Amino acid sequence: MGLDLSAIFQIAGIGVLVAVIHTVLRQSGKEEFAHWATLTGFVVILFMVIHYIGQLFNEIMDVFRLH
Amino acid sequence: MEIVQIVGFGLTAALLIALIRPRAPQIALLLSLFAGVALFVLIVHKVSTVIGAMEHLAGAANIDRMFVQTIFKIVGIAYIAEFGAQIVRDAGESALAGKIELAGKVLIMVLAVPILTSVVETVLRVLQ
Asked: CA-to-CA distance for B99 and B79, rounded, in angstroms?
Protein backbone atom coordinates (compact mmCIF):
# COMPACT_ATOMS: atom_id res chain seq x y z
CA MET A 1 0.00 0.00 0.00
CA GLY A 2 1.53 3.27 -1.10
CA LEU A 3 1.04 6.66 0.43
CA ASP A 4 -2.43 8.00 -0.11
CA LEU A 5 -1.92 11.60 -1.14
CA SER A 6 -5.38 11.93 -2.66
CA ALA A 7 -7.04 11.00 0.63
CA ILE A 8 -5.12 13.62 2.54
CA PHE A 9 -6.13 16.32 0.03
CA GLN A 10 -9.69 15.06 0.24
CA ILE A 11 -9.72 15.41 4.03
CA ALA A 12 -8.08 18.84 3.84
CA GLY A 13 -10.63 19.90 1.21
CA ILE A 14 -13.54 18.83 3.39
CA GLY A 15 -11.89 20.65 6.29
CA VAL A 16 -11.59 23.92 4.37
CA LEU A 17 -15.14 23.56 3.04
CA VAL A 18 -16.51 22.98 6.52
CA ALA A 19 -14.56 25.95 7.85
CA VAL A 20 -15.96 28.17 5.09
CA ILE A 21 -19.53 26.95 5.66
CA HIS A 22 -19.07 27.52 9.38
CA THR A 23 -17.89 31.09 8.81
CA VAL A 24 -20.66 31.91 6.33
CA LEU A 25 -23.40 30.53 8.56
CA ARG A 26 -22.03 32.35 11.58
CA GLN A 27 -21.79 35.62 9.68
CA SER A 28 -25.45 35.30 8.69
CA GLY A 29 -26.38 34.79 12.32
CA LYS A 30 -27.18 31.06 12.19
CA GLU A 31 -24.85 30.00 14.99
CA GLU A 32 -26.72 26.74 15.56
CA PHE A 33 -26.50 25.57 11.95
CA ALA A 34 -22.83 26.50 11.87
CA HIS A 35 -22.11 24.10 14.72
CA TRP A 36 -24.12 21.34 13.09
CA ALA A 37 -22.19 21.83 9.83
CA THR A 38 -18.88 21.51 11.66
CA LEU A 39 -20.07 18.41 13.48
CA THR A 40 -21.26 16.78 10.26
CA GLY A 41 -17.96 17.43 8.53
CA PHE A 42 -16.12 16.06 11.52
CA VAL A 43 -18.16 12.84 11.52
CA VAL A 44 -17.69 12.35 7.77
CA ILE A 45 -13.92 12.67 8.09
CA LEU A 46 -13.96 10.54 11.22
CA PHE A 47 -15.51 7.68 9.25
CA MET A 48 -12.81 7.97 6.58
CA VAL A 49 -10.05 8.04 9.14
CA ILE A 50 -11.51 5.18 11.19
CA HIS A 51 -11.42 3.00 8.09
CA TYR A 52 -7.69 3.67 7.74
CA ILE A 53 -7.03 3.17 11.44
CA GLY A 54 -8.72 -0.22 11.29
CA GLN A 55 -6.50 -1.10 8.36
CA LEU A 56 -3.43 -0.02 10.31
CA PHE A 57 -4.35 -2.11 13.34
CA ASN A 58 -5.03 -5.17 11.20
CA GLU A 59 -1.65 -4.67 9.55
CA ILE A 60 0.09 -4.41 12.92
CA MET A 61 -1.74 -7.50 14.18
CA ASP A 62 -0.54 -9.41 11.12
CA VAL A 63 3.04 -8.22 11.28
CA PHE A 64 3.62 -8.77 14.99
CA ARG A 65 1.34 -11.84 15.29
CA LEU A 66 -0.73 -10.20 18.00
CA HIS A 67 -3.83 -12.32 17.41
CA MET B 1 13.67 6.39 -3.09
CA GLU B 2 10.94 5.81 -0.61
CA ILE B 3 12.25 8.29 1.92
CA VAL B 4 11.66 11.17 -0.52
CA GLN B 5 8.07 10.02 -0.88
CA ILE B 6 7.64 9.84 2.89
CA VAL B 7 9.17 13.25 3.54
CA GLY B 8 7.10 14.78 0.77
CA PHE B 9 3.96 13.24 2.20
CA GLY B 10 4.83 14.51 5.68
CA LEU B 11 5.53 18.02 4.44
CA THR B 12 2.28 18.14 2.46
CA ALA B 13 0.35 16.91 5.46
CA ALA B 14 2.03 19.45 7.75
CA LEU B 15 1.21 22.30 5.37
CA LEU B 16 -2.42 21.27 5.08
CA ILE B 17 -2.72 20.85 8.84
CA ALA B 18 -1.21 24.29 9.41
CA LEU B 19 -3.72 25.67 6.89
CA ILE B 20 -6.72 24.10 8.59
CA ARG B 21 -5.78 24.29 12.27
CA PRO B 22 -6.84 27.91 12.93
CA ARG B 23 -10.19 27.38 11.16
CA ALA B 24 -11.20 23.90 12.31
CA PRO B 25 -8.89 22.43 14.95
CA GLN B 26 -10.85 19.16 15.26
CA ILE B 27 -10.47 18.42 11.57
CA ALA B 28 -6.79 19.34 11.73
CA LEU B 29 -6.41 16.68 14.42
CA LEU B 30 -8.13 14.08 12.24
CA LEU B 31 -5.88 15.09 9.35
CA SER B 32 -2.74 14.62 11.42
CA LEU B 33 -4.12 11.31 12.66
CA PHE B 34 -4.68 10.17 9.10
CA ALA B 35 -1.22 11.27 8.00
CA GLY B 36 0.31 9.40 10.93
CA VAL B 37 -1.67 6.28 10.08
CA ALA B 38 -0.62 6.39 6.42
CA LEU B 39 3.06 6.74 7.31
CA PHE B 40 2.82 4.05 9.98
CA VAL B 41 1.21 1.54 7.61
CA LEU B 42 4.06 2.03 5.17
CA ILE B 43 6.70 1.50 7.86
CA VAL B 44 4.97 -1.49 9.43
CA HIS B 45 4.90 -3.09 6.02
CA LYS B 46 8.69 -2.80 5.88
CA VAL B 47 9.08 -4.21 9.39
CA SER B 48 7.29 -7.39 8.35
CA THR B 49 10.26 -8.49 6.20
CA VAL B 50 12.62 -8.01 9.16
CA ILE B 51 10.29 -9.98 11.40
CA GLY B 52 10.16 -12.79 8.87
CA ALA B 53 13.97 -12.92 8.71
CA MET B 54 14.24 -12.93 12.51
CA GLU B 55 11.72 -15.75 12.78
CA HIS B 56 13.72 -17.75 10.26
CA LEU B 57 16.95 -17.16 12.22
CA ALA B 58 15.26 -18.14 15.48
CA GLY B 59 14.01 -21.33 13.86
CA ALA B 60 17.53 -22.11 12.61
CA ALA B 61 18.96 -21.52 16.10
CA ASN B 62 16.35 -23.83 17.68
CA ILE B 63 14.97 -21.12 19.91
CA ASP B 64 11.55 -21.77 21.38
CA ARG B 65 8.92 -20.11 19.18
CA MET B 66 7.13 -18.86 22.26
CA PHE B 67 10.00 -16.52 23.18
CA VAL B 68 10.36 -15.04 19.71
CA GLN B 69 6.63 -14.46 19.39
CA THR B 70 6.53 -12.81 22.80
CA ILE B 71 9.25 -10.42 21.69
CA PHE B 72 7.33 -9.57 18.52
CA LYS B 73 4.20 -8.99 20.53
CA ILE B 74 6.10 -6.69 22.88
CA VAL B 75 7.49 -4.68 19.98
CA GLY B 76 4.02 -4.46 18.44
CA ILE B 77 2.46 -3.27 21.69
CA ALA B 78 5.21 -0.70 22.10
CA TYR B 79 4.62 0.67 18.58
CA ILE B 80 0.84 0.87 18.98
CA ALA B 81 1.04 2.45 22.43
CA GLU B 82 3.58 5.00 21.26
CA PHE B 83 1.46 5.86 18.23
CA GLY B 84 -1.71 6.30 20.26
CA ALA B 85 0.03 8.29 22.97
CA GLN B 86 1.56 10.68 20.45
CA ILE B 87 -1.78 11.30 18.75
CA VAL B 88 -3.50 11.92 22.07
CA ARG B 89 -0.69 14.23 23.18
CA ASP B 90 -1.10 16.11 19.90
CA ALA B 91 -4.73 16.64 20.81
CA GLY B 92 -3.58 18.34 24.01
CA GLU B 93 -4.41 15.53 26.46
CA SER B 94 -0.99 14.68 27.75
CA ALA B 95 -2.38 13.12 30.93
CA LEU B 96 -4.38 10.64 28.85
CA ALA B 97 -1.31 10.01 26.72
CA GLY B 98 0.60 9.13 29.87
CA LYS B 99 -2.10 6.63 30.79
CA ILE B 100 -1.87 5.00 27.35
CA GLU B 101 1.88 4.67 27.77
CA LEU B 102 1.37 3.21 31.24
CA ALA B 103 -1.10 0.68 29.84
CA GLY B 104 1.45 -0.29 27.20
CA LYS B 105 4.12 -0.80 29.84
CA VAL B 106 1.84 -2.90 32.02
CA LEU B 107 0.79 -5.09 29.08
CA ILE B 108 4.43 -5.58 28.15
CA MET B 109 5.20 -6.57 31.74
CA VAL B 110 2.36 -9.10 31.67
CA LEU B 111 3.73 -10.59 28.45
CA ALA B 112 7.23 -10.75 29.92
CA VAL B 113 6.16 -12.76 32.98
CA PRO B 114 6.30 -16.20 31.28
CA ILE B 115 9.82 -15.49 30.02
CA LEU B 116 10.89 -14.32 33.45
CA THR B 117 9.49 -17.42 35.14
CA SER B 118 11.18 -19.70 32.66
CA VAL B 119 14.49 -17.93 33.28
CA VAL B 120 14.09 -18.35 37.02
CA GLU B 121 13.13 -22.01 36.60
CA THR B 122 16.20 -22.63 34.45
CA VAL B 123 18.44 -21.00 37.03
CA LEU B 124 16.90 -23.08 39.80
CA ARG B 125 17.36 -26.26 37.78
CA VAL B 126 21.03 -25.43 37.21
CA LEU B 127 21.54 -24.72 40.89
CA GLN B 128 20.01 -28.00 42.06
From this structure: 15
C-alpha distances out from residue B52 to B11, B55, B72, Å? 31, 5, 11
Burial of B20 (0-12, 13-18, 19+ CB in 10 A): buried
Instruction: Tell me the shortest Cα–Cα distance from B87 to chain A, in angstroms.
Output: 12
Instruction: Reduce the DSSP state of residue A66 to 3 states and report it.
Output: coil
Contact A59 B41 (CB under 8 A): yes
Q: Which of B23, B28, B30 is facing A49, going by the closest CB pair? A: B30
pTM assigned to the model = 0.81
The 10s digit of each residue's pLDDT in A2-42 is 677 888 888 889 988 988 988 898 888 888 888 888 899 99
As for the ipTM of the complex, it is: 0.83
